[in-house]
Design brief:
Layout lengths: L20 E5 H8 L10 E6 L2 H10 L7 E5 L2 E5 L1 H4 L9 H7 L4 E4 L2 E3 L5 E2 L11 E3 L2 H16 L9 E5 L2 E5 L1 H11 L1 H4 L10 E3 L12 E3 L13 H24 L3 E6 L2 H8 L7 E4 L4 H6 L12 H10 L4 H4 L4 H4 L4 H11 L16 E11 L2 H21 L7 E2 L2 E8 L2 E8 L8 H18 L5 E9 L2 E2 L17 H11 L8 H11 L1 H6 L2 H5 L3 H9 L11 E3 L6 E3 L3 H18 L12 E2 L37
Parallel strand pairs: 3-5, 12-14, 13-14
Antiparallel strand pairs: 1-11, 2-10, 2-13, 3-4, 6-7, 6-8, 9-10, 15-19, 16-20, 17-18, 17-19, 18-23, 21-22
Helix pairs in contact: 1-6, 5-8, 15-16
Bound molecules: thymidine-5'-triphosphate (TTP) and calcium ion (CA) (2 copies).
The site of one calcium ion has 4 residues, from loops.
Main location: nucleus
GO biological process, one term: mitotic sister chromatid cohesion
Pfam families: IMS (PF00817), IMS_C (PF11799), POLH-Rev1_HhH (PF21704), zf_UBZ (PF18439)
Length: 640
């Protein structure tokens, strides 16, 4: 017997040889388990409550589901439920106009803090007393928390769960890891190793080739394009994602009686467009092959981050607001908006977005604010509002668990607007003892006193107090993060909260807030947290004081080459994005840069509105802008 002959060809044949293969690889599949942003099988959802404040009031008041109801803030309506939308009511109309169009409507005023009271309540006469009442959004924040908890309960625990709170009534969910584990359970062929352990091998074709999309609104190819093919793994991932979101939405309804809408797609930007596509109480799946078709019908100003000045600039530069038309513009021409902006826009128009779902869902800061019309003119008047702010912030701190020493803020900041100028002063909260309402009030008073001593404090048109830098104390998680100014959170989160869930009153509430969202979009998007710190000398000093010393620099931290600041490794992406966004901003504005760090006052216009929550990946360049789904296989669902 001769010994076996070894040749250069492999001893066993590829078990998948000759069989139909997926266009996706084992690597793409594996990457799902690590939430990679580059796998084409990535599956993201956006869930948004329908007419949120209005639903909160419907549930609280126990009104029938078909009862028209709106939530009123002073004279204006800030949330309109779906039964009243049938009467043509929109967010911009007044309560009086609404009653003309829909006499049966219930207009419920938001809860308020009345001057001198130490708790908020629903006051029947609130709308007449704007001067002495201040809005409380606590009822909605509480419901928001319950909803978030319910959503998390309906998902498997981390690491298979990744949820980002994206606003008071919305979340992003990265379902990739959960879907990965479901795929391995349901499709044994995927659990086998790839031939020759080669991860670049294509996956086998799915063994079950029909998908029941159930009641989902599916953004699909045109009927004539859906010829003779079966779904590939991307479709299966989306359909499992749709199942998960159906379950999540049912959980919210069963537990709390709120309806919400969902979008399921390959990334955040598309998922968000999807959740708004078919409201209320429906979910929309955007098939990867249908992305371009889906986007073509949109005005690009409806896309996240293109609603503001950047969108206007693009319309002015290219004479269209249609995705379809802008897609015909070569990237080189888009780059007249700036190199990076051009590439980013080119990708966005094609539905390419690799921003991560960020699993932080805890409050990092909170803000209580009041605009004064007419302005206030004395220290005593200011102090009366600080009393309310302190009570408001303290009660929210209690909900965060400060009394059980679970979580604790590090700073109290007072913002003060006089004329066009906003001044901010910050105090560090003494660590160690328990926080009390009195302590917050005393710190706030001393900050106001400092502003008065600095001069030019009156007339004051807006005051706000924020508590920031919340840390988990129980988990011993007080570590290095507390010392760092990262590209992410600290001063900004409070501003995120202010646009989403603070009790700040911009009058008229809706129009103005809308205006901020739209007109200030680009500033909001590009402003960096550290610019918030530039707004005052004090605040900056406080920030500086938290910088790590040599000995504080532990593993997991690096010094950014661009700005020489210590950055947590885990925040690296976010921080890089900030530099990227900042460069974009500079390219776009060609205006003088924001006030230098040492400047004591900043113009109100320069105030940071919201942190950039979107990541733009500079590497997502030209070469990676694969023509989305053009010329790809045509599929048919159902009986295919
Ligand atoms: P949205 O999610 O924008 O709107 P909505 O939930 O009322 O309606 P939809 O079904 O279209 O999602 O905002 C969530 C809540 O935030 C909203 O119920 C009230 C509040 N809000 C304001 O107070 N002012 C505003 O300008 C906006 C846009 C929202
Ligand atoms: Ca909503
Ligand atoms: Ca929303």
């Amino acid at each position: 017997m001769s010994s076996p002959q070894y040749t250069s060809s492999p001893p066993a044949s590829n078990p998948l040889e000759g069989r139909r293969r997926s266009k996706f690889t084992f690597k793409h599949l594996n990457q799902l388990s690590t939430y990679s942003t580059t796998t084409p099988l990535r599956t993201i959802a956006h869930v948004d409550l329908d007419a949120f404040y209005a639903q909160c009031e419907m549930v609280r008041l126990g009104v029938a589901r078909d009862q028209p109801l709106a939530v009123q803030q002073w004279g204006a309506l800030i949330a309109i439920n779906y039964p009243s939308r049938k009467f043509g009511l929109t967010r911009h109309i007044t309560a009086a106009e609404a009653k003309k169009l829909c006499p049966n409507i219930v207009c419920q005023h938001v809860a308020t803090w009345r001057e001198g009271d130490d708790t908020w309540a629903y006051h029947d006469d609130a709308f007449k007393n704007m001067g002495t009442h201040k809005v409380s959004l606590d009822p909605y924040r509480r419901e928001s928390k319950k909803i978030l908890a319910t959503i998390k309960e309906s998902l498997p625990p981390p690491p298979l769960q990744r949820v980002e709170k994206a606003g008071i009534d919305e979340v992003f969910i990265d379902m990739s890891a959960q879907i990965h584990s479901i795929l391995l359970e349901r499709y044994p062929e995927l659990a086998r190793l790839p031939p020759y352990d080669d991860l670049t091998e294509n996956l086998p074709w799915p063994s079950q080739s029909t998908i029941n999309w159930e009641a989902d609104a599916l953004v699909d190819l045109e009927a004539e394009e859906l010829e003779s093919d079966d779904p590939d793994w991307d479709d299966i991932c989306l359909s499992i994602g749709a199942e998960i979101i159906r379950h999540v939405r049912k959980g919210v309804w069963d537990a709390l009686h709120y309806t919400c809408s969902g979008g399921v797609a390959r990334n955040k930007m598309l998922a968000k467009l999807g959740s708004g596509f078919n409201k209320p109480n429906k979910q929309t799946v955007i098939r990867t092959r249908a992305i371009q078709k889906f986007l073509n019908d949109f005005k690009f100003t409806k896309i996240r981050n293109l609603g503001g000045k950047l969108g206007d600039e693009i319309v002015a530069a290219f004479g269209t607001d249609l995705v379809k038309e802008l897609c015909d513009v070569p990237v080189e021409q888009l780059q007249k908006l700036g190199d990076d902006t051009g590439v980013w826009l080119y990708n966005t128009l094609r539905g390419i977005d690799s921003s991560e779902v960020n699993s932080r869902t805890q409050v990092k800061s909170m803000l209580s604010a009041k605009s004064f019309r007419p302005s206030i003119n004395t220290f005593e008047q200011g102090v009366r509002w600080l009393r309310i702010f302190a009570a408001d912030i303290f009660s929210r701190c209690v909900e965060e668990g400060v009394l059980e020493n679970k979580r604790k803020p590090k700073t109290i900041t007072l913002h003060h607007r006089q004329g066009g100028t906003t001044k901010s002063k910050q105090a560090l909260i003494p660590q160690g003892g328990l926080i009390s309402e009195e302590l917050i009030f005393d710190l706030a008073k001393s900050l106001l006193a400092q502003i008065v001593v600095d001069g030019r404090a009156w007339p004051c048109s807006n005051l706000s107090l924020s508590a920031g830098g919340f840390e988990d104390t129980i988990t011993g998680n007080m570590g290095i993060k507390g010392f760092l100014v990262t590209g992410g959170q600290r001063p900004t989160k409070e501003v995120v909260d202010s646009s989403e869930a603070s009790d700040s009153e911009e009058e008229p509430p809706t129009a103005k807030r809308q205006k901020i969202d739209v007109d200030d979009g680009i500033r909001r998007f590009f402003a960096h947290p550290s610019e918030a710190a530039t707004s005052t000398h004090n605040e900056n000093q406080a920030t500086q004081a938290r910088f790590p010393t040599e000995t504080d620099v532990l593993d997991g931290i690096y010094i950014c080459k661009k700005c020489s600041k210590p950055i947590l490794q885990s925040d690296a992406g976010e921080h890089e994005d900030w530099h990227f966004a900042k460069n974009l901003e500079n390219e776009l504005r060609q205006e003088p840069r924001p006030a230098p760090v040492h400047q004591v006052e900043s113009h109100a216009k320069e105030k940071v509105k919201e942190k950039t929550k979107t990541k733009r990946t500079a590497g997502q360049g030209h070469q990676s802008t694969e023509k989305v789904e053009k010329g790809q296989q045509r599929l048919r669902f159902g009986n295919g």
